[in-house]
Amino acid sequence: MKRHFTFSLLLVVVWGIGGCVGLGPAQPQSRAVVQGSTAAPTEPPATNTPVSVGIADAPAETPTATSVPPGETATAVPPATETPAPPASPTVVPTSTPTSAPPATATPAPTAPPSPAPTKTPYPTGIFVASHRGFSDGPNYVVVGEVLNTSGVAVYGAKVIANFYDRGGKLVAASQALTSLPMTEPEVGNPFKLKVENLVSAVERYELTVTWEDVSLIEFRYLTVVEGAIDQGTGGKSEVTGQIRNEQEIALTSIVVAVTFYDAAGAVVETADIFLGGQTLAPGESLPFAIPLPEGAGVYDHFWIEAQGNLNLF
Questions:
Q1: Which pLDDT score is estimated for 312?
Q2: Which class is domain 127-213?
């Protein structure tokens, strides 16, 4: 607001210029032979950013007095009527309504992912002994196991050859045996059992190899196993009994039924089979079977029954 004053002799006008006051803005800071034998991200540390708060003093202007030249009569200036400033309207400060902060939600701790289950070592490609077990049976030494075919095509007449060695590494015996089923289909186990009788020397280890034929002049087909169970047979001995059915479009003969016993881990512990050579099954016909359970079967968890027959072309 400006104010004017009248003097009788001398008019002095003084003009004052105030200093300017300023706030400096806050500046952020810059920043093929198988051998057998008995760790949360952390936040960067908080930095207190200094804020410059000050008053910039502008140089004050020096009032300059203007002298009235001598001889001149100062003209009286009528008194200035001070115009009253309108009353300031009170500024209504809005009343802030306190807002209650929402309740903090607890962040659940991250759940550690489950450990993946161990995977089995993949089988090689070919025909090989996938599982086997050797044990003494009185004076005899027996090896049971399963041949697996991962070649993608069926093979025939698979044969397992075993060489037995004593503690000194000397070859003390050899034996061989065909698999129970004449055809070894891809991804289907085919059991075998071989025995060395009256083996005097103690067997320290053995080696198994497999041979087979890629083609066959005889065609083989699977029969369907309708049922199978362990029962008490004649003489109180346990046996595997069940029934097979021919669901092929042609009669089958020279029938073989084989059973493989496994432990809980899926390893072979015993095998047995029966040959029904004199039987011929027409399409749709069924046939019962009974296979004596070997006395040395040991402890098993489950078993698997398979049956094959030849095409009867005559």
A1: 74
A2: mainly beta
